[in-house]
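User: Predict the structure for this protein chain, please.
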Amino acid sequence: MPQTLTASLMRSVNRSAILELIRRNSPLTRAQIARHLQVSAPTVMRIVDSLIEEDLVRACGSSEASRGRPGSLLEFNGQ
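Assistant: Here is the predicted structure, written as structure tokens:
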């Protein structure tokens, strides 16, 4: 019988994956995070916003967009 993840466990897994990706590869945009982890953009935005509120992640400028508007770059706050 296949195991399913509860919504809160999935949020926790996504949060850990996003934080670790930013820690190892910053600076990154939200769109890059969503593509890399294959997570929806709204999920990434919600989690990143909470990480910023907790001061674990911070904005650090804008990306050079080849099309569309530039995304804000995010970096791990190692302080």
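The chain has three helices and two strands.
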